[in-house]
Every structure is written in structure tokens, then in C-alpha cells.
């Protein structure tokens, strides 16, 4: 089995693939577009994409791609993100003058970095920052990335768990060509558009509230070419084949201009 | 009057300041944090911040800053974003080998750039890309930015309106230290949190639907330190001092754990 992810080897997404799938081949891609494309074109069997971080919020690009590509959500996985300060072996924390990483990782370690009193420089990727550091042979620079990235490039971890807020989780979605029918507790993700009229979103949410269906997430995205009209993405507890959910979606289709089920899948615990 | 914006002189935000305020001093800031700080510290009288683009979606960082800073929304403005291909005077389109701009501008002109068959390179800012081009003296590179940026740096516009989708608008918000009480048609922006229970968002929206108050936008952002709990940002038609709105907000305060009015302000037309 071949599973695509965005980023360099050692990325948090790659870690999430091994946690979720076990022994598979993880296939690195440059962009999220390339990740989706690799599954659509049958180059990969599935992909694992980050959809939301508990501190930084949604990865909106992936919401857009879920709509554009005709793929299905088949699972979810929560990864606890633990950032490491990584440098060349033999280097001490006091030798570090500069720290590089992805802007989001730098921001999540902002208080730690302020105390360290170093120059901060954003680069394109977390695991990529370790790769760049290795190639540069720079003994006074450290990178911020996963333990896995440090091991992969034979680098030293100066400190682990340097994020300012410990409640740092990323929710990943498994994306594949065929839908699944989950047993047991499930989640369903849908996307829809509504007429731009007063009260339509309230009516749309009523199809769930009237049936005691629990929403776990609502996200709005711009509808291309129709300024200030929106796509709504909703996640809720339940599977599309359950009677209650089937009726709710049927009811929603009366109100929605467009409605698509992106997938029902086993609910993961954090 | 001194109004802060994020970006280099010639930025779309600067254009929006002159459109909205007329003759004022526009004060460029490096980051959105610096923009908010310049108003809070009384260095500037107001700021104009982009909050949403009709193609790219919300500028989530500014939603976070609206909550963090104790400032008020006092107005809104819609700017039609028209991208220009900009090069040194005397250069023709056929001489161009490379195009630089902010990643969002590059993406909004993706089809145009594909037809041009050039190398594409993201840089930190649209107006900044013209500044960089000017400083580089590179005759084979073009930048994508506003007409204003081209004029400011004495550069030539090779083509105007090169965006793939003409429905390209950015909504800006005026932010200042004191709230305003708008006459005439108004909008109000609020932020609130809810108990994580089934149906609470539906109940929250009911306070508006039951009073025929029209929502224009809903946005969710992560609540820091409480994974998968959310802040909800809502814009609706009406001013906080109107009886109907006052009652709706009073009703919402029964359901919300936290509720803050970010401001009522005159509604702008697109």
C-alpha cells in the first residue's frame, strides 16, 4: 500500500501515516494538489491530509481540494504535535544563534524562542528545515521539527516538547478513491451551498438539531465567482447509511442548492 | 489623521485607505500585529485591515487579532482587486522570463501566467515585489501588483486586470479605539463561544432567525487550549443599539459562555 502526504520525509504527516496505517510506503509530495492528484491518478492508494490544527485552525486549502477532487474521506486520525529543537550532534543550546522552521511551528514555539533570544527565520517546511540545516553544515543554527525528522537526518534533539501550548493536535483525514461504510461510532463530512436568504443557515442546521445529531465542526469557504456566497463544510456524528442521518441529509437536500457527502468514516479518539 | 495598514507603500490596503478616508497619512506596518499595536498605542488613529477576499476567503489572523486587541470595528470597505503585470519601462511582454509576487496574487493569475509560460516565484508582498524588481534592475522579470504600486516606483504596466476571475473583491474593516453608533443601514460583528453540546450553534443562530436578522458571515476559529472547541464570529445586518438587535444579543448572552460585540458600523456597498 502506498499513501501520499505533503512535505519532506520526516514530516508530521508521515508520522501520522505510520501511526494510522502501520507498515506502508509513505509517498512525499510537494503540494496538497499533488497529494490529491496522486490518489486520483492511482499512483497512490490513499492520502493522509491535515485538515485542522487545534491551535492554528483549519487548513483551508484542503477543504477546497476535497470539493474539487472526486475522492472520499475514509478515516480520521489525531496526532499530538510535539516540536523538537534540533541541531548538529555535539552542539549545545548556548551555541544556537538562529532557528529555522515552518512559520506555524515558529509561532507555536514563540514564547520558548523569545527566552532563547535567537534570530528566527521562516522556511517552507518543518522536516525540510532539518534537511536544510544538515545540508548547510551550519553549527549555530537549529531547526524545529519532529523527533522523526531529527532521527532521519542523524541530528541531535536539544529539547523536546518546546511548544508554548501543550494542547497541540492536528486532525488528519484519510482520503481515497472508494467510500467506506463504517461500523460502530462514525463521523460524516458534507459540503453544501444555500440560497443567500435570511435564515437559510439556521434552517440548514435545524435538520441536524431536530434529530439530535451532534455537529463537531462548521467551516465556511468562499464560493468562487459569487462574492460573499459561501460553501459550508459540516462534520457530524453518525454515518450516512443510518436512518436518522439519511433523513437529515434528505431534509437538507430540500434546502441546499448543492449538497455532497464527502464521506462517512470511523470516528477517532484524540 | 494617521491610518495604519500592513504592507509596503503601494499595497492594495493603502489604496483602500485613500478610497475610504480621502486625504490622510497612510502608515505602513510590517505585520498585522504591528497594525493593531499602532492603533492601541495611539501611534495611529485608525487602521484598515483586510478581513476577507471573495476568492481566497478569510484572513484568519485578523479574526484572531480582533479578539485579542481591545479595539472596535467602525466601518467596512470593499475594494475591487485588479492585478497588473509590471516591468521596467521599455520592456515588452515577450522579454519576460520570470514573474514575482505574493503567493495569493500569483494564484489569482494562475491561468494568465500559464499562457505566458514564465518562471513563477513567490515573494512576501505584492507592492513589495515591485520594490524588489526596481532594486534588482532585472529587465526580464515582471511583478504583479496594483496600478498604484507601478506608478509609485516609476514602472510600466504591461497589462491590467490579469486576474483569472473578475469577481475579485477584498472586504476591509476600519479598526479604531472608540466604537461608533451608525445611522442608516448598519452591520454588526460579534464573537462568542458556546458550550460544546449538541444543538448549541443552532440555538445561537435562532436568536437571529427568530427576529429575521440577516447573517452575512459566519466564521469559526479554534479556541486556544481547548482542542475542538470554537470561537464563532458572526456578521449581521443591524446595529447593536436597535431594539431588535439588542434583544437578540441579550438572548444570545443566555446561551453563550463569552460574547463580545466587535462593533456596529455603516454597511458598505460592494
Number of strands of chain A: 15
| CATH fold-level label of the largest domain in chain A | D-Maltodextrin-Binding Protein, domain 2
CATH architecture of the largest domain in chain A: 3-Layer(aba) Sandwich
Instruction: Identify the quaternary structure here.
Output: homodimer
Low-confidence stretches of chain A: none
User: Biggest β-sheet of chain A, characterized?
Assistant: 6 strands, mixed
Largest inter-chain contact set: A-B, 38 and 38 residues
For the record, what CATH class of the largest domain in chain A applies? Alpha Beta
Domain unit count of chain A: 3
The N- to C-terminal Cα distance of chain A equals: 25 Å
Radius of gyration of chain A: 21 Å
Task: State the helicity of chain A in percent bands.
Answer: 25-40%
Shape assignment of chain A: elongated
Mean pLDDT of chain A: 96
Q: How many individual helices of chain A?
A: 9
Strand content of chain A: 35-45%
Structural class of chain A: alpha/beta
SSE string of chain A: EHEHEEHEEEHHEHEHEEEHEEHE
CATH H-level homologous superfamily name of the largest domain in chain A? Periplasmic binding protein-like II
Could you characterize what this model shows?
2 copies of one chain form a homodimer. The first copy, chain A, has helices at residues 12-21, 32-40, 60-68, 103-108, 110-116, 126-136, 147-152, 200-209, 243-255; strands spanning 2-6, 25-29, 46-53, 57-58, 72-80, 84-87, 98-101, 119-122, 141-145, 156-160, 169-176, 186-194, 215-222, 230-237, 256-266. Chain A folds into 3 domains: 2-80 and 168-176, 3-Layer(aba) Sandwich (D-Maltodextrin-Binding Protein, domain 2); 84-160, Periplasmic binding protein-like II (D-Maltodextrin-Binding Protein, domain 2), CATH 3.40.190.10; 186-266, ACT domain (Alpha-Beta Plaits, 2-Layer Sandwich), CATH 3.30.70. Chain A has 9 helices and 15 strands. By secondary structure, chain A is an alpha/beta fold. In chain A, helix 8 runs antiparallel to helix 9. Helix content of chain A is 30%, strand content 35%. The longest helix of chain A is centred in the C-terminal third of the chain and has 13 residues, at 243-255. In chain A, strands 1, 2, 3, 4, 5 and 11 form a 6-stranded mixed beta sheet that branches. Chain A has a 5-stranded mixed beta sheet with strand order 8-7-9-6-10. A 4-stranded antiparallel beta sheet of chain A has the order 13-14-12-15, with helices on both faces. The A-B interface holds A 52-57, 60, 165, 167, 169, 171, 198-199, 201-203, 205-206, 208-209, 212-222, 224-228, 230, 270 and B 52-57, 60, 165, 167, 169, 171, 198-199, 201-203, 205-206, 208-209, 212-222, 224-228, 230, 270.
